[in-house]
Amino acid sequence: MLVTDTSNFIACLQRIQPPLNILTDVERLKPFETDAFISHRATPLCAVLPETESQVAEILKSCSRERVPVVTRGAGTGISGGAIPHDDGVLVVLTKLNKIANVDALARTATVGPGVRNLAVSDAAKPFRLFYAPDPSSQLICSIGGNVAENSGGVHCLKYGLTTHNVMRARVITSDGDVIEIGSRALDAAGYDLMAVMTGSEGMLGLITEITVKLVAEPEHIETMLAAFPSVTDAANAVGKIIGGGVIPAALEMMDKMVVEACEKVMSAGFPLDAEALLLIELDGVREEVAEQLARVETVLNECHAQEIRVAANAAEREKLWRARKGAFAALATIQPDYYTIDGTIPRRCLPEVLARYAELGREYGMTVANVFHAGDGNLHPCIFYDGTVPGEMERSEELGGKMLEICVEVGGTITGEHGVGIEKLKQMCVQFRPLELSAFHEIKAAFDPSGILNPGKGIPSLKRCSEWGGMHVRAGEIPRSDIPRF
Amino acid sequence: MNELIKNLCERLASHAASKKPLTIHGGNTKAFYGGAIVGEALDMRAYSGIIEYEPKELVLTVRAGTTLAEIERVMDKENQMLPFEPPHFGEGATAFATIGGTVATGLSGPRRPYTGAVRDFVLGTRIINGRGEDLNFGGRVIKNVAGYDVSRLMTGAMGTLGVLLDCSFKVLPKPAREITLRYEMDEATAIQRMNEWAGRPLPLSATSWCDGVLMVRLSGAESGVKAAQEKLGGENVADKMAHDFWSGLRDHRAGFFSSSEPLWRLSVPSTTPALQLNMPQWMEWGGALRWVRGIAGVNTDITTLRVKVDAVGGHVTLFRNGDKSTGVFHPLQPVLGKIHRNLKTAFDPENILNRGRMDNI
Prior knowledge:
By secondary structure, chain A is an alpha+beta fold. Chain A contains 18 helices and 18 strands. In chain A, helix 14 runs antiparallel to helix 15, helix 15 runs parallel beside helix 16 and helix 16 crosses helix 18.
């Protein structure tokens, strides 16, 4: 954008009533240059921090009139780069839309602004013995708006579902600045399931200004247990047998030796250090049912050669185990400061095979790989360690990560289970989807955002980029449906 | 099957070229549902069979023409179920509901408020769009956020966005024990109770209220269900009677549904007070789904009915019988309507798929 156009545009934003908080100086824009995908940064034209829905609508009207790209940001905890600003665009920061409008205990819903923190919703529901189930590890700081944009998971989604299963309704500002309501406080809504399409759409279809989430009853009883195994394969087999045997744990997490050692060093969680792999299993529900399941799980664990089984004796012990799990990624940073984490999902039965192949690939690249992940969901988060001071190492870690994701696709899985595509996995999207599907995605975007101003360049790669990367098969130079707009 | 898919793609492409509509069907058990049917029939029953079923993975992939009866037979052997308890409407010796129709209509049974809807368990779909292109979305894994969630978009889209080929689902183990409790109480008390109990850690799996009788189903381990029963009291309904009751509600075989009067489906927030419509009513889903019977214009005016339900944040569907000319599905706000039409055009630019079946877009 030309300098005069830029100042005219900013002047346009300055006319919005009530006056909008607009940041244009480089100094104050600095903290907004990246999200948690810190290897990439960009400086936007400006950042705006609206405090009302009508301001958001006015911002969008100005941006759509001037064709200025819009990137939406919440707490900035996303790790695929979805909230990294656009050089020529506006960064809309929704953290000030942070009011809990209402907690309806009888209807078991909470209606909140997108800037409300994930954990704050459960805190507000606690007096009614209800909670908001999706619990990404960043739940202390991540915001609900970002959770919806990314369709966040968490450690308890094996039983309670992802964000998409726990969001009922949203108010959304379209790229033209119109306000729409999607979903419903009822259990379904008229028309297409736009709530499902909006959830996980990474800020590319609309800006969410209010969200109604489902709250669920706190379980009557919880048992959390730790099982240590002499091999990763034994632990992976136990995962399949527990679920295949008819028990759906509230959470089922796995950690390998390296993660266990790091957690132990940093948090003294009391993890057994002689094991090759640990499973952290949580069962919840009606007291009697949990007791029955606990006995069944213990039998399976013993059959799978568990060398040690510990059941948390009380809430404090359970807290300690979970703190260690949720702090695992921070603990890993003490081993080596730089690492790259990926997010592929695979069918559970492929766990032993895929983990073995990851270890092999790590050896090939001469890079250390640690695993801490949502085993019950088959959602892997291998951490690839590298030395950022050595030129080319970061790129090599990304290349290794890319290969790991391609293995996920090969065994029938996906390149992202809960972190989103953002800018990080654009290349792998070309591996997972064919040009026809990618075209359909672009057309869905155009149905919501005809001018293409919302988070351009994220989430869905252009067919042109796929063919440049060589990840897409274009026959005889023919790109399917070249008539539709590309972003 | 590849030949069959190829033929389907060619047929759709040729219809797109000539702009001639097609009406997709399986067992035709839900032909009554939705806007009027126009165009040549596209029978999907030949495209049937289970592609992959890994009980240990809790994942099932089936062809759209597979009957629910067949799926349930196979899953029974593994002691697993489709968690959304899909209705089998109007089945006879030759008509069997298919999984394709289940996904296309997005209809779920009594277990829905406590376990989830069809859309909650759909993991992936393979479709043919209105251009005759064979597309694959989602997958066979439980967590997947790559690309927009097209599989859930297809669920409940009434076949207007694509012909469903393969569908993958997350499935669940069957509960070890189910019991049903019966209570006599008025409508307001029933609405209050159903909502209160849903906010407590109880193994609820279905609720219904009709004519002063509340029925509550509990599912889970024997011990858990027994313990919950002690807390809730009520009169225990014999297993056979309970089974017939819930399947009669699910499949609309109960007397209430056999009338030739128009049947309205009111989907409302579960805590909505009694609607005072002066029409016979059957409530389920913890108060969130209210079936009412009556002739619009006689018992009530359709516009008044829609306005009333709109005001509480719900929507009305003319589910069965009655005059479809005033609209089957709830009207959409103008901006939402535009997005719907854009989506329809993106998937089916010539409007050949189930034209008019979703009459609010």
